[in-house]
Structure formats: structure tokens, C-alpha cells
User: Fold this.
Amino acid sequence: MADRPRVFVSRVIPDDGLEAIREVCEMDLWERDLPPPRDELLRRVAGCDGVLTLLTDRVDDEFLDAAGKKLRVVSNYAVGFDNIDVAACARRGIPVGNTPGVLTDTTADLAWALLMAAARRLPEGDRYVRAGNWKTWGPLLLLGPDVHGATIGIVGFGRIGQAVARRAQGFGMEILYHDVQELPRDVTEPFGATFLPLEDLLARSDFVSLHVNLSEVTRHLINAETLSWMKPTAVLVNTSRGPVVDQRALADALRNGVIWAAGLDVTDPEPIPMDDPLVGLDNCLIVPHIASASPATRGKMAAMAAANLLAGVRGEPLPTQVPPPA
Ligand code: GLV
Ligand code: GLV
Assistant:
């Protein structure tokens, strides 16, 4: 009993993960709906062998100091890891786990739902009906751009970007992509995807979907200048991380017709304050960071995060480890 590893799990995740952890570890589980406040988090991780964190928990030097010398693993319940100072973990020899792969298609589905819904104005139409405004069939009522046959620009052509491209193929779209570098032909050819510099991609795309990691390079990648390169009829979709978009510039662009509409799964900050200008705009659709939110996928993420946590506390290689910075 005494040598069971001690772990802190910072929110209730599906049983697919919790049961495996409970079998092996002394688990301290944060059971409330809201994340642990910072001081509580730092107190709870003290002396732990492993921690299972969410994207709402910041893991930095302060956190690692609070956890102390026994900490052997940080397992993040997400594919993204911008909440974690991976370099600080690496300096202390602590591996960081994430949950890539299992959420790729579920996230691409949601990106596609946002794209379709923003283009065809589903939230506006729903609000219109419920407000009792539907009086007759209207030749000019709630027109929105065609998705089929349009051009999509995918920014970040990793797993999720490619899964979005697969969906776009079914809609007969022309597929453009941008990434830090042009990808090998055998990756892009099945999609008929064409590499373009960001400026050309934004200028040519009817739909732009963001699938980059958040880093110092991608922070505010979409800003007043890059928005001005887009078509006035274009739709922007963001399922990556809120800070990839300069939100104030986006609100101006949507208000002034620089672009036509946006569909957001992520905002900066989260939750988005109710007095943020985007909240008042009819051509901005916002959902609360739910891209991976299917029961099946959240279950797989839980199993994967648990496997990383358990490997870490045993001192074994993590099944899916975030590569330490070079
Ligand atoms: C969610 O945004 C994730 O990174 O898994
Ligand atoms: C995330 O899974 C990505 O590489 O797009």
C-alpha cells in the first residue's frame, strides 16, 4: 500500500482512464466542474509521482517546484500542450504525454460542422425560427456561400488538417494548404493539395481552417494584416487554439465586411467574456471548445492519458510522449 504511486488527476475524465489509474495508484481526483484554483492545484500536486492535467492547468516552473522531486510524469488530457512548459519539464527529466491520433477525426468533424454552419447560417436560421420571424419562404432569406466546389485553405497540414482535407474532397473542393514547410508529395497527393505561402492561400480561399499548434510563431497568425489578405466572402474556422487569432482584429474584420463569417471552437481567453465584441456578432458562431467531445473519443483520450501516466510513474517510456524541445 505504501508504495502505490501518488497521483493527482485535475478533473473527472471518463472511467476508461480513471479505473486503470485507481487500480495502480493512490489517486487524488479533483471532482468539481471548474478547474482547481491555482493555489489549490499547487497544494494538491505536492509530493505526487504523477499528474494528469487538462488544458486548463498551467504546468510551469512554479507548478513543477510545487510538485517536488518525486514527480516523474505530466500526462496531459489533450493533443495540444501549449499549457505546459515542455522545456521546463525536460530540464527536470520529466516526460510529458499527450493524446494524439484518437481525436483527429472527431475534431475534423467539428471543424466541418462549424464550416457548414457558418456558411449556411444555421445558428442565425435557428434563432430566426425561434424568435417567430419565419413568415414565408424567402428568395433572399439567409443566403450563404456554397461549400461544394469552393476552395479551402488549410493552415497546418498535420493529422487534423489532413482529416479536414479528406472531408473537403467529398465536397469537390479545391484544397490548398500552408505549413512551416512543403510536405512530401506522398502526403499531399492523395488530397490533390497544393502548398501555398500564407498570403496566397488566404487570398485564394473561400474557407480557411486553422490546424496549427499554438506557439510563439503561430500566436496571432491571423491578425489585421493577414485578415486583409482574405476574400470579403471568406469564412474562417478555428478549432486550434484561441490565441492563433487576434480576436480584436477578427471582430473588426467581421463587423466591417473584411471577411464574411467565422466559426470558432476556441477563443482567447476561454471562456470568452460575454462583453467580447465577437459575442454580439451574428456572423460569428462560437462553441465552447468541444471539438473532441464525443463519448468514444473522450474515452479513448482518457485511456491514453492514463496509459501515459502509469508508464511515467513506473519509469517506462510513455506510449505517446511530446517530443522535448531540441
Ligand atoms: C483540445 O483542444 C486538445 O488539444 O485535445
Ligand atoms: C494533431 O493531432 C495534428 O497533428 O493535427
